[in-house]
Amino acid sequence: MTDDQALREAVLQANRLIPKAGLAALTWGNVSGVDRAAGIYLIKPSGVAYDDLTADLLVPVDLETGRVVAGRLKPSVDSETHRAFYLRWPSIGGITHTHSTHAVAFAQAGRDVPVLGTTHADTFSGPVRVTRDLTPQECAQDYEFNTALAVIELIGDDEAAQATPAALAANHGPFTWGKDAGKSVEHAIVCEAVAEMALKTLALNPSAAAPQWLLDRHFSRKHGAGAYYGNDLSKATGA
Amino acid sequence: MTDDQALREAVLQANRLIPKAGLAALTWGNVSGVDRAAGIYLIKPSGVAYDDLTADLLVPVDLETGRVVAGRLKPSVDSETHRAFYLRWPSIGGITHTHSTHAVAFAQAGRDVPVLGTTHADTFSGPVRVTRDLTPQECAQDYEFNTALAVIELIGDDEAAQATPAALAANHGPFTWGKDAGKSVEHAIVCEAVAEMALKTLALNPSAAAPQWLLDRHFSRKHGAGAYYGNDLSKATGA
Amino acid sequence: MTDDQALREAVLQANRLIPKAGLAALTWGNVSGVDRAAGIYLIKPSGVAYDDLTADLLVPVDLETGRVVAGRLKPSVDSETHRAFYLRWPSIGGITHTHSTHAVAFAQAGRDVPVLGTTHADTFSGPVRVTRDLTPQECAQDYEFNTALAVIELIGDDEAAQATPAALAANHGPFTWGKDAGKSVEHAIVCEAVAEMALKTLALNPSAAAPQWLLDRHFSRKHGAGAYYGNDLSKATGA
Amino acid sequence: MTDDQALREAVLQANRLIPKAGLAALTWGNVSGVDRAAGIYLIKPSGVAYDDLTADLLVPVDLETGRVVAGRLKPSVDSETHRAFYLRWPSIGGITHTHSTHAVAFAQAGRDVPVLGTTHADTFSGPVRVTRDLTPQECAQDYEFNTALAVIELIGDDEAAQATPAALAANHGPFTWGKDAGKSVEHAIVCEAVAEMALKTLALNPSAAAPQWLLDRHFSRKHGAGAYYGNDLSKATGA
């Protein structure tokens, strides 16, 4: 079992951001973070209220088997979805699932969230796409693992997963991921924000679109070799 | 009269959730909880601000006669609606009525809230339906009791009431119920959330729909013999 | 000059409800309350932030002349609109003006807020209507007084003003009134809530309507000789 | 370097208003304020969370060269956009950029925010317009400076910039300005509010419009020689 208290604390704080950022009501939503060296990920327990959640209650799950490693709590019912993502994409360290309103609206409408502006392009290189429907068979057995497989089928390899770290499970809701738990929930915030902007943009102009060169410029300001966004606050002091 | 202080506290907290969860402005909305052994339900007094509400101010009403059992306050004007639900459905222990924005919009539009995704199917087995209009006669006499009868006519028996514990009174608003007061207000939160999601989904895709097998899978994750959602936090400690 | 400290406090609290209830950004919106015996109304000073507002800063205005009675602050630029309402409708004791989003949307669209359900009918006996456009002459001189005259032309006499204590100045926003300052801001809250519900109802069903007998029943539950809504909390104690 | 602590504090408070007023999530958005005598403007550092922001972390930039004058932090990636505005419009003292939802929706839809009522006309003399698309060349080099040039091409001279201190960069978002940092963020609040009202107005009436004489009257109540809105609170005391 992982004894990484920093990971426990990071996963706890990321889970608490879900209600704080208005991404889900009640106990909806969950965040996990992985310790790849230990072969374990920590995930929100199933059905626990965010106000009751503590670092100790997070459930450690074995990455290979999906079995709970310690404690008496069951992990989120979506645990197997998380596990499949970790197995497929080695670069990711955290995963978030929410039922945020506007992202769910796109998932339920069966429409991708199109890239209509720089808010979207600053974080996601392409549209936030919706999976195909699962088959009755995929729903009947290993449903949660199959949910991930449909997302992986849509997204592709690790590089593609880094370029657009978000997808919508059809008639369900958004899954986002990132290098750690905190980054994955940040992507959930962006996903909801750009979905809301897109819904309102389409109400004003059903054929809205954006020039690709503008989008590329914004994505490259923040990502890749030429990125020039952000600061390291530890360098702030001194002349 | 019931001297169940735990019930008083539970009904008080459930009422306070209404403004906290943004389900109603001013004094709109009310929650009740029933003590079936005592033959009494406790309900919010009429027209009292949520900030002024205390456990002592809750009004005890006789389940058989609808008469106030103690105190000088009148119960919510919707008291008779609650009473009719308790009489018809023996399994329910709490009832919530709100004027939450999106649920009211569907009630005023005369449209059911369709099951468009898993957020809805996690809690409600079918659409949240709208009653027929009341007749002039039903409005003229015993209006509040007749409001419940139109809902009961729509929903059916106790089993059906458990499967989808929510309905919309036409041109009025949502009524939800559950095994206790807290669960009924939780269902009011879900009802408003799925109504908002549905309204936005329909704006993106007027013919949106969801595969029945996905919805069934989600409902059965949380309800019935095969349910595997949730935890008992009292079991959390120990290895 | 009025030395009614209770009125000062009531008008202050009513003004503070505007930002608290989300009815206006920045310094938008204003509430006044009248002391008819003294022939004076107290109104928010022009352009003062709600956080800076104190009871002492409220501006006393002479009901007959519209002149400031004491202090060096100018009253709200809408002071003359308030004055015209007080002069025309003897029963009203308070007036509120806001720029709340959905009420403004109807005012800008030139559409009445229709009575689509009981939330509306509980407070307003008819639609919240929009005035005609002011003429260039009415805008050029005595603009604020003329704004009130267009509302009065729409609403009619004192009895009609009590039945539906709200109107929308075309391309401007809502004015509401009531027996005192607190009641007028409560009506502003209802006005915004029913405008939001109506906008969303019309998005779901452009021809939505409600049976008149249901609306009448709800209005009469709260208003007139047969009203049975509400409690006097001072009677709450004792058996 | 400017040692104007009052400017530092004003720019800090203006930046903090962005999340407080709900104008942007995460680290999106930035405010700057200029010290024209010193030839320097202070701007938010790139990618710093609002909760971590202090007056000391604001980055001083040389107005002529765009170079950082002191400290080790990089300025906002939008620094060059700010600089171009300061160089072109001598009357302005502060600039705000946000990704507020409804203003972005208009920017992404490629539609101006039309003047549909007095809320808009109280602050902006004309529509909040959208720039043309930048060319691939303008995006490839000096992108941020070119973003400002497209806005300046749309707005015109200093007088025009004062009359309507807001514009939408196409597929990007709003830029607003004012006599100081605080006023620029106030204009960002107005810009978002009127965009939301306009979107909802157009949903109710796609051909909504307002009489020009009403709009002119409102703009002149607050601006120019005949303005009569507002108070100087320092004059509030005494008879």
Write up this protein:
The structure is a homotetramer of 239-residue chains. Chain A has helices spanning 5-20, 79-88, 101-109, 118-121, 136-140, 143-155, 158-163, 181-204, 212-222; strands spanning 30-35, 40-43, 59-62, 94-97, 166-169, 173-178. The first copy, chain A, is of the alpha+beta class and 239 residues long. The first copy, chain A, has a single domain (5-224), classed as Class II aldolase/adducin N-terminal domain (L-fuculose-1-phosphate Aldolase), CATH 3.40.225.10. In chain A, a hairpin with a 4-residue loop joins strand 1 and strand 2 (40-43). In chain A, helix 2 packs parallel to helix 6 (143-155) and helix 3 (101-109) crosses helix 8. The first copy, chain A, starts with a helix and ends in a 17-residue tail after the last helix. The interface between A and B is large, with 39 and 36 residues. Chains A, B, C, D: Its cofactor is Zn(2+). Chains A, B, C, D: Belongs to the aldolase class II family. AraD/FucA subfamily. Chains A, B, C, D: Keywords: Metal-binding, Zinc.
Give a quick rundown of the structure.
Chain A is built from nine helices and six strands, in the order H-E-E-E-H-E-H-H-H-H-H-E-E-H-H. With 239 residues, chain A is of the alpha+beta class. Chain A has a single domain, classed as Class II aldolase/adducin N-terminal domain (L-fuculose-1-phosphate Aldolase), CATH 3.40.225.
